[in-house]
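Hi Y.,

Following your request, here is the sequence exactly as I used it, all 190 residues.
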Amino acid sequence: MSPKRWIYSIGFYFALAQMAFSGEGGGGSLLSPNPGLAIWTLITFLVVLVVLRAFAWKPLMESLENRTKYIENMIKEADEKHRKAEEVLREYEQKLESAKQEALAILEEGKKDAEERKKKILEEAENEANRLKDQAKKEIDLATKKAKEDIWKEAVEISTSLAEKIMEKTLSAQDDQRLIEKALEEYKQN
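Below is the corresponding structure, written out as tokens. Let me know if you'd prefer a different format.
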């Protein structure tokens, strides 16, 4: 307690004691204080003050100090929890952003893979079409060549038959073969 408060408190208690004394009909007034009563009042006040200071003031101050520390600790814990919550929120937001980026990357990769598959399938289809086209062309060429050979063989046979009739002579198998080969060679050269 500050010294000013002490002085006000002592004055207040003197006034209270004086009013109590004058109320008993002792004939004293507030303006004529009784020195003996004032000393005993002061002694009583000081004793009460010492007793209160020894037994009540210290526990009361300890209780207030403990309460203050408890409140400060609660504020620190709340601040720490708030800081941790903000940190968790930031981590969550980062993870969410990372997940979004990863999802976009996966979608982009999926599109890229689909485009590559499409390109590969089209390329394979084109290659297969070219292969079938080449195979058909070869088969057509073979069929054309065979048809030409068949036509020449038939033409040679018809020519041979006509020549036989004209010559009235039958050719031997060797002559026949030789004439066919000669006709084919002439055809190939032309």
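Helices lie at 3-23, 35-167, 173-189.

Thanks again,
Q.
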